[in-house]
Write a structure and sequence with these properties.
Blueprint: H1 2-26, H2 30-33, E1 37-41, H3 47-59, E2 67-71, H4 76-88, E3 93-96, H5 105-113, E4 117-121, E5 133-137, H6 139-152, E6 159-163, H7 171-189, E7 193-195, H8 199-203, H9 212-222, H10 228-241, E8 248-253, H11 257-267, E9 273-278, H12 285-293, E10 299-301, H13 304-319, E11 328-331, E12 336-342, E13 345-347, H14 352-357
Parallel strand pairs: 1-2, 1-3, 3-4, 4-5, 5-12, 6-7, 6-8, 8-9
Antiparallel strand pairs: 10-13, 11-12
Helix pairs in contact: 3-13, 4-5, 6-7, 10-11
Domain Periplasmic binding protein: 37-322
Signal peptide: 1-22
Main location: other
């Protein structure tokens, strides 16, 4: 009996040792046991980033590589924890859309220290050399398209111009505003527009080019922080302070679709505002309905499908040992970051069906009155 028990015990020990050795052998291949690509997005509270989440998942669906996607919910501290979590998962590539471009530096430096390739997604990470690549839309071109649309629809002179911007912590907000200022400033200087809601912008209205510090002063007055509620509060404050000469037919530079809808809702309730043109960007579904209904004038369509494909294509190139294709570079205050740029398209009521329905970005059944 004792001999039989010793034999059983021996067989169990041998079996367990075999299993442990097999497990140790398999842990060496990140594609089978770890996460290949870690993705950190800024928030679940904006439709655009939730859509990106699904598109990232779809982009790797037929690949041997794996991904994990985490949201920072508007917190740089959460963002750093998310990066640490992904590093512990054994990622080889980090794709990150930072909540705060400067604050994200320490997170990506930790990733670089682990030998991870860092790809900044849509928003540039600033003041660090720990970025390998940047995938982006041409953010200056977005602002120029918004400004040009307001110019093309301005009637007469002294058109009140209300300026709004994104978050000062987001480098893109500066680039969007820079682009808009590039085209609007000459029309402010010649009297086509009169700035209605920023003393800092008024003081600089004769300056064709603004320094980062000068733009920062203007953004300090007109920032929405990408928050529709903050946009509502600012719009209400500005309309309350404005005299009749700053109402009537007006132009509104709104930085994105969420703030555009919020600002439009405020201006549309003021009986002294007879008409308005308001810009946007991201082609959010709710804003496309607003455009169809005549409540928002335009949006800058940034086909996120292409941006996701570019980011994942770049990640796969890295994982396959190839050098990703780039089309330009952006200086982040520390280094020139090699970038892949994606084109943008202006969408208004005249081409909304062609650009967003015919391209299968949306289905016609998602809208009324189309």
């Amino acid at each position: 009996m004792k001999s039989s028990w010793k034999l059983v015990t021996y067989l169990i020990v041998v079996s367990m040792a075999t299993i442990m050795l097999a497990a140790c052998g398999s842990s060496g291949t990140s594609s089978s046991s770890g996460v290949s690509v870690g993705i950190v997005l800024p928030t679940r509270d904006e439709p655009r980033w939730v859509q990106d989440e699904q598109r990232f998942k779809d982009a790797l669906a037929d690949s041997e590589y794996t991904t994990e996607i985490l949201f920072s919910q508007g917190s740089s501290a959460n963002e750093k924890e998310n990066v640490e979590t992904l590093l512990n998962r054994g990622i080889d590539v980090l794709i990150i859309a930072p909540h705060d471009g400067a604050a994200a530096g320490s997170s990506v430096e930790a990733a670089k220290a682990e030998g991870v390739t860092v790809i900044a997604y849509d928003r540039l990470i600033t003041e660090t050399d720990a970025i390998d690549y940047y995938v982006t839309f041409d953010s200056v071109a977005v602002g120029e398209a918004q400004g040009q649309y307001l110019i093309e629809n301005a009637q007469g002179t002294n058109v009140p111009l209300y300026l709004y911007a994104g978050a000062s912590s987001d480098n893109n907000a500066f680039l969007f505003f820079e682009g808009a200022w590039n085209v609007l400033q000459p029309k402010i200087a010649d009297g086509t527009f009169v700035i209605a809601n920023s003393s800092e912008a008024t003081a600089l209205q004769d300056s064709p080019e603004l320094t980062r510090e000068e733009m920062g002063r203007i953004l300090g007055q007109i920032t929405t922080n990408w928050d529709p509620n903050e946009a509502i509060n600012k719009a209400q404050t500005h309309l309350t302070a404005a005299g009749a000469d700053l109402k009537g037919d007006i132009a509104i530079l709104a930085p994105n679709d969420g703030t555009a809808r919020a600002i439009a809702d405020v201006f549309s309730t003021d009986s002294e505002v007879t008409s308005y043109f308001v810009t946007g960007q991201d082609a959010e579904q709710a804003s496309i309905q607003y455009i169809i209904d005549g409540k928002q004038s335009m949006t800058v369509f940034k086909d996120v499908r292409t941006l996701v494909e570019d980011a994942m294509g770049m990640a796969i190139d890295v994982l396959d040992g190839n050098t990703p294709e780039t089309t330009g570079s952006y200086n982040n205050g520390k280094v020139d970051v090699q970038a892949k740029q994606t084109d943008v398209i202006v969408v208004d009521e005249d081409n909304v069906k062609q650009e967003l329905i015919d391209s299968e970005y949306y289905e016609a059944s998602e809208f009324t009155g189309l």
